[in-house]
Design goal:
about 300 residues; alpha/beta; eight-stranded mixed beta sheet; 13 helices; 8 strands; about 15% strand; binds guanosine-5'-diphosphate; binds magnesium ion
Amino acid sequence: MGFFDKLFSGLSKTRSNMEELEELFQGYQPDSEDFYDELEELLVLSDMGAATAEKVVANMRKLTWERRFRKGYEAREGLIELLTKMLDAGDTGLKLETKPSVILMTGVNGVGKTTTIGKLASQLKAQGKKVLLCAGDTFRAAAAEQLAVWAERSGADLVRHEEGSDPAAVVFDGINAAKARGADVVIIDTAGRLHNKQNLMNELAKIRRIIDRELPEADVESLMVLDATTGQNGLLQARQFLETSGVTGIVLTKLDGTAKGGIVFAIAQELKLPVKFVGVGEGIDDLLPFEPEGFVKALFKA
Ligand SMILES: Nc1nc2c(ncn2[C@@H]2O[C@H](COP(=O)(O)OP(=O)(O)O)[C@@H](O)[C@H]2O)c(=O)[nH]1
Ligand SMILES: [Mg+2]
């Protein structure tokens, strides 16, 4: 399946949720208050969040007035344009120019951190990079096992310690192994759950300090993983990670399993962080680089 087709099918649930939006444009009446009310309702249903939906509607009113939309297709194009603009929250690419450079993966339990690491490792390997995975989730033995499977599949190196050992020590070893072996990228897995939240945040802060101390000049991409199926709730949970690990971008997983793809807009508007990748399945090739225009097009069948 091609790149756009994958995104398109990954968004099929969200798009079916938006069919009513297409109907809304078919019955478009300029200057109708009902149009704006229904638009807002549909956007909220897509899990865009009330504040962001309100903003879209306000921007849409303004654009309609400026451009004097009369026809449904004009208004539809206008909406596509402004939604695309709203997704621009910074650079969607990864900056990994130093050798080694680091990708730190954070997020609550079960969102798809380890799976995303496997997918990313495979993409970086395909670009000819030497990749080392570092099993910083030492909370459960199964976590390192799962990472080992992905290392095998993607052809990446792996550094792991025993269950229950200090994650910061694994990270220290991982970074030094990467230096010694001439790896291009170290990808660090982390736990999403510990005995309590404060423990987890302290641990992430400690990992971050080790990275900054051992590789002060390195490019560090700190990616926070969000599960699209948890919607607005996931967004709330995510805020704590932002301060602790210096997040540079978001990976939004499980878009294939939800009709609530509108969460992408809430992320850009509320977290002011770029989505860098979207997950559209459990397979190794099911991670797509995010790009606002393509995303909105796939959402609208435009
Ligand atoms: N459908 C779907 N499932 C995913 C995606 N990403 C991860 N998963 C699944 O989500 C579950 C939890 O993933 P895992 O990587 O273990 O999460 P972690 O606890 O954050 O490391 C696994 O069953 C994955 O296969 C995705 O993009 N789509
Ligand atoms: Mg994991």
